[in-house]
Protein 1
Amino acid sequence: MSGFSTARLKMVDGQVRTNDVTDRRVLDAMLTVPREAFVPADRQALTYLDLDLDVSEGAAKRFLIKPQLTGKLLQAAEIGEGDNVLVVGCATGYLAALTAKLAGQVTATECDSALAAKAKAALNLANVTCKAAACADGDPSAAPYDVIILNGATEVTPEALLGQLKEGGRLVGVSAESRPPRAIIVTHTHGEFGHRALFDAAAPVLPGLERAAAFVF
């Protein structure tokens, strides 16, 4: 077993399972997708640590969110094998690669066009389409979605994304609209959106989903 394979097993056993992730499909995906393939070569030693991993190559900071939070969000999303899923702010594509193991079709968006190109090359999967797009915009062309997953946090209500949810669909991510930040699930039922907090969680805020700066005299 290679060093990365051993580290991947330890990540799942020590970070993911111990945080109440019991969904066999999610665990299998995290055991088989090589996270190191989505990390720049000079940072691969950090691949399997319990941290939000900076994979930025440009001015804007972009991250792969912590493995345990990744697993918990995927479990909460309850992705079905035929589901059409949008991954928002995919960075280099790791969360999209995991989602592709669970869903029928995946659209992944990334606001940094250079990172989007890297994600597209790293993913190269038949059921994933990767696009450069603002996080707040989603991708209406492939909507409506059964599931939308945020690879990070939002400080505002993502109205455009919610508008791309199918009836019966759900959005999962971290809401930092109030303190403490929490993982949430938003469900679309009978034209209404229901918000439910799942657990306390912190993640980097996605570009374009920041709270507007308050005006100061």
Protein 2
Amino acid sequence: MTITRAEVCAVACADSFADAGTAIASPFGTIPSIGARLARLTSAPELLLSDGEAMLIAETTPLGEESTATVEGWLPYGKVLDLLAGGKRRVMMGASQVDRFGNQNISRIGDWGRPKVQLIGVRGAPGNSVNHTTNYWIPNHSTKIFVESVDLVAGVGHDRARRVGARYHDVQVVVTDLAVLDFRGPDGAMRLRSVHPGVSVDEVRERTGFELAVDEVAETRLPTDEELSLIRDRIDPKGLRDKEVPS
């Protein structure tokens, strides 16, 4: 059975939710959404999923379909802000830029006074990254995203968190279309944990705009037969994953 890169990425994202316990999953992107659903069906059965608006749903619904699942809780916007401040979410965000310590930018590219590109603003990134576990998903690993220094800090990295004594800061991993990276390098710097099948360490280094910490690099684990069946038949029968990470 041929396993696609998208499926490897989805399982890596699922693993980032495995220890979440009773928390609301907030995945941004197709692959993280598959990962959160897969985790709920396997390693994290207490993970809470929403319909994307204001309801907590009882079942794990397929991606790309309108939810008809039983509603088990109401989640108005004000409650979401309370949960954000209280650390009861498990977030996987994207990044327009991220540096070696996990500082993330989704706001603008370029000089403060005259930016080249205006993006979506910092949104909830500061609160996410200082109040509960936050991970990142990058579908196109490149030197434009993995930069020496971000142009604006939206999500807080390990170096800045230490300076201000951010007690609940917990940025753990970055999953990309090439690899899984963590922050177990010197002083909390980004480290290459694993490369996906068919990817070399040198390829990841060449597409990263700073020096990665590299120890013993494993190969990212493959999905089990059960996980493949859940991804293909129950979670993403429309194959939306292959549009985000083409084979």
Protein 3
Amino acid sequence: MTGTMETMTMSDGATVAVYHAQPTGERRGGVVLVQEIFGVTDHIRDLCDEYAADGYEVLAPALFDREHPGFEADYSGEGLARGVELARQLHPFELSMKDVQTCIDTLAPAGPVFVVGYCYGGSVAWFASTKLHGVAAASGYYGSMIPAAADEEPKVPVILHFGRHDHGIPMEGVEQVIAKDWPNATVYVYEAGHGFNSDRRKDYHEPSADLAKQRTLDLFRANGG
């Protein structure tokens, strides 16, 4: 790991842990990287380090710190159950949005800020493109809340990544997002399942992960990064 865990005071006064990775070489911009329901795990920290190696200063807030400080889980049944409980019952989604906004505001003075998120964070990335301020572009991976919010037009360029074989996000919902044909939104469908970006998961699909990452970098670079 090349980054460090730090703390940040959020808009409600809470102190939340944030993984902070500094860019390698010339700084291209800032990235707020939003976690899966499993917390700021070693996988999430690895992703932060990868974006830092690409020239971005990265912040990844531990969104569930108020309810479960230091929460990190593997993909087992117990960890999954606790992550679902935190995401769907104990932690207000609006607080996640506010914490991401605080991270955006922290990075913004130094240049353009981008948002990328995975699973739970993929939904956050979509809403960042429709609701938050100071976002140059966003990339959301397999966010399950997106189809139900497809009527909200993105204010900034956003790309979405879904797996055709994702049992938790039926293709009917993805097709609803595609049908909206928002000028700022591009939807990509991969021959993969849920979580295809994580090499810790059984559904990891390296070709899809590599292509989605390149598309994300291309999006950032086309919008000031």
